[in-house]
Amino acid sequence: MISGPSGVGKGTVVHRVLSLDPSLYYSVSAKTRAPRPGEVNGREYWFVSEEEFDRMIEAGELLEHASMFGHRSGTPARPVEDARAAGVDVLLEIDVRGAAQIRERVPDSVLIFLEPPSQQELVRRLEARGTEHGADLERRLARVDEEMAAGEHFDHRVVNDEVDRAAAEVMAILERYGHTA
Ligand code: 5GP
Hints:
Bound molecules: guanosine-5'-monophosphate
Shape: globular
Number of strands: 9
Largest sheet: 4 strands, mixed
Strand content: 15-25%
């Protein structure tokens, strides 16, 4: 599982890891926000309504879930369980609150915290990526301290100074746990 503060570049590193190692099964999360331009249902996320998300929680279909910046995200349990039953290693990319639930519920998970070279750099990246503005950007900035502090509960910390280097370090960690590409 890869987690880390908002804006650290989790998506980019995960993308690189998956291209280095197509044998990993990427868990596609359920999300209650609307798709952004270019996002495809079932590829980036499963886009579901708030009602459907409630139903999934009720039915025990989510391995973890969390609220974030005006919407909710969760990991559908079934695909993860099916992949693991078939001997396939699964990659999750989730926020730090979901990570805490995975630690409890999946004891053999490997928790990797992706961190920025510095907290100032994280703030700079969040502002520079330009996908959030005004109140939304403020909310993310306000949560930086809490999200950075969560790093101490992880098995491994990887600095996202450079995408290729960080992805290679993630691969090296997985190999130490017996994962082969
Ligand atoms: P986005 O900008 O795509 O709306 O949201 C990205 C945030 O949602 C990231 O922090 C990402 O880690 C988190 N996220 C994506 N999928 C899940 C999930 O299934 N569970 C949790 N807890 N967080 C998720």
